[in-house]
Every structure is written in C-alpha cells, then in structure tokens.
Amino acid sequence: MRIRKNLEDFKPYEWQISSTNLASKLKKNNQILRFDTNTSPYISKMWLKKLSSRLDKLNINDYPDVSYNNLKKSISEYVNINQNMITVTNGSDEGLDMIAKTFIDENTNTIISTPTYMFYRIISQIMGGNVISIPRKENFIDDEELILNSITENNSIIFLCSPNNPTGNSSKRETIIHLIKNPNVIVIVDEAYSEFSGKTLVDLTNNYDNLIIIRTFSKAFSLAGARIGYMVASKTTIDLLNIVRPPNSLSVISLALAEIALKDIKFVQENIRYIINERERCKKILDKIKGVQVYRSDANFLLLKFNKLNPNKIYNLLLQKGLIVRNVSNMINLEKCLRFNIRTSAHNDILLTAFSEIIKNN
Ligand code: PMP
C-alpha cells in the first residue's frame, strides 16, 4: 500500500511497555509500578465524586460546546492571560500536532534542542519538515548561539521544552527572549512540567505573536487519563492554530473534570510540594550511591547517569521486579542514562532499594 514518501523511513513514537502485558509475563497481580510516564501518583477522589454528582446533568448525547468558553475562562484565570489567547486541546500532544499542521511543511526547518521529548521530531517529520537537532551544552543548557545561527529566513520553527523532558532543566528566560526577537522564527515552549519549576513564559505571549506556550493537565493536575491540554499565544496566532483544530476532540466528561480541577488548585499545589520534597529526598539518597550521577531537576522526574553499569541491564533487572523506568540510553548524549518519575515516598523507596541492590550486586 502506498504511504506518503516522508513516512517511508520514519521512526514512529516508541510506545512504552503495557502494565497488563508485563504483569501477565511476570505473573504478578497489580504489582507493576510505573516510573516511566512522568504522570502523578495521586487521584483526587473529591474531583471524581463531584464529577459523578454532575454526570446526570451532562449533555453526553451532544458534542461539547464548540466555544469551550467555560474551560477557557477558568484557564484564563489560572494563567492570568486573556481568554482569547487560549485554545484547548486533547492533551498537549494534540496541541503539538496542531502546531505542526499549521506551520510545518517540506520548506520548514524544525530546530530542536536535543535530547528532548521525541514528539517534536515526529510531528515535524510527519509534515515533511527538515529536522535540525541542536545538541545541548554542558548540563543540558540550550545552545542559544547555535540555535540562532540555524534560523533561516521566514521558515524556521524552534521547539524548546522547559523544564526539559528528559533532562529536567529549564530554558533560560533570556534565551527565549533573544529567540523570539527574531520575527523570522516561531518559538514553541512546551511547559508540560512548568508547575513543578514555578517558572513560566506565558506572560511573553502578550508581546510576541511568534511565541506559543504548550500546557497540560496530565502532570501537575494528575489528569493524564482525561486528555486535556491547552496552548497560550497571541489572539492572531491562536486564530491560525484553530484553522486545523479537529472538530470536537475534547470529551464533555473531560471538560467537566478540568473545570472541577481548576476550582481546587490547593490540591494541585499540595501535590506539587510533596513531589518536589520527594524528588529532593530521592536525589540526596542517590547522590550517596557510588557510580550514579543525579542531575538537578525542575520537574517531577530525575535523570540518572551510571558511570560503569550498563543502563540497559539495570532497566531489565528493574523490569523483572515489576518496576518500569524510562530507558533513555538510546538518546543523543544520554548513552548511560535512565529517567524515573517521582511517586509516593513508599513507592520511591521500593525503587531506591532496588537501585542500590542492583548496583551493589553488579
Ligand atoms: N510534552 C512533554 C514534554 C511531555 O513529556 C508529554 C508527555 N509525556 C507531553 C507533552 C504530552 O502530554 P499530554 O498529551 O498528556 O498533555
């Protein structure tokens, strides 16, 4: 069957191992612990209770209200940005997909500060874009100079992730400002993990048409399963993005849940505080283990570098214990690395004990 030419050598998204498949392989019931998805270990029973009390009033027979005004209004208050500068999406991945469909074709140079979230490369290649990977400098800092030098006239788009998945560091605000000052370029800043860093660049969208900020409810809001994301940009840019918006991609149930969540920011903030404390506790413990380097993180995950041990071996040994971490050792400059996300302290202890046992015995 004929497929589009640019998909012939295309390397698709690497799906992670399924918990149910692993459980049946290991003959374990409910003992699989995922540390690879960068999601939250918390479920707000209160939000679900509120949702269930509203279910009988939801117009589930109909498509969602096309304006999405209720949710946009709540997001607008949360990020302190005008409502007409927001568009909501089915997870932030759909936002990235809309960006690619709006701005990328075979004449576009997609500049990606790597290593980073692989979806930027994927969406660009799907649209036929020419991917230019700019390796990060020491400590994974964006190479501003090289990025600036890679910008060509009126056909460049830059993807930055802040804090960056999988390295955990944030982009510098001055770097973003230097980049967006060039009107020939569109700058995307993926802030999927920004709530954990306490830093954001959304305010800059008030002054620059060529900046798009991507956000999600999947991480700090603990709602990955509900699939809700949003983008913040100038009204002009949002109008362009909405040209390719798929009709009705958000569910009525998810919209209701997101609105409930935004009325309970306290729950979100408590979880963020807990995760940050746990992250620092885990880092301290791991820092004491010989042969492991732990990078500083602004997000809800940590990146580890193993000086001697093979990360593939560690990954597989953990898998046998029902512990799934993210093997990032196939990524540029991360050959000796694994990433894991922070869960509850009891779960983190299980992983830390497994790490130290594996390191001691290998
Ligand atoms: N951006 C980054 C940096 C991510 O790590 C992820 C998911 N892991 C996403 C976007 C997509 O998240 P979602 O579609 O659930 O909003």
> Strand share of the residues?
15-25%
Helix content class: 25-40%
The N- to C-terminal Cα distance equals 48 Å
* Heteromolecules bound: 4'-deoxy-4'-aminopyridoxal-5'-phosphate
Could you give the order of strands across the largest sheet? 2-8-7-6-5-3-4
Q: What is the number of helical segments per DSSP (H or I, 4+ residues)?
A: 13
User: Largest sheet, described in full?
Assistant: 7 strands, mixed
Structural class: alpha/beta
Mean pLDDT over the residues: 95
Number of strand segments: 13
Rg of Cα set: 21 Å
Stretches where pLDDT falls below 50 for ≥5 residues?
Answer: none
What does the overall shape look like?
A: globular
Give an overview of the whole structure:
The chain has 13 helices and 13 strands. It is an alpha/beta fold and 362 residues long. The strands form 3 sheets. Strands 2-8-7-6-5-3-4 form a 7-stranded mixed β-sheet, sandwiched between helices. Strands 9-10-13-12 form a 4-stranded antiparallel β-sheet, with helices on one face. Strands 1-11 form a two-stranded parallel ribbon. It has helices at residues 19-26, 45-54, 69-79, 91-103, 119-126, 144-150, 173-180, 194-197, 235-241, 252-262, 265-287, 311-320, 345-361, and strands at 33-34, 86-89, 109-114, 130-135, 156-161, 185-190, 211-216, 229-232, 292-294, 301-306, 323-324, 326-327, 337-341. 4'-deoxy-4'-aminopyridoxal-5'-phosphate (PMP) binds at residues 38, 91-93, 117, 161, 165, 190, 192, 216, 218, 224, 229. Residues 38, 91-93, 117, 161, 165, 190, 192, 216, 218, 224, 229 line the site of 4'-deoxy-4'-aminopyridoxal-5'-phosphate.
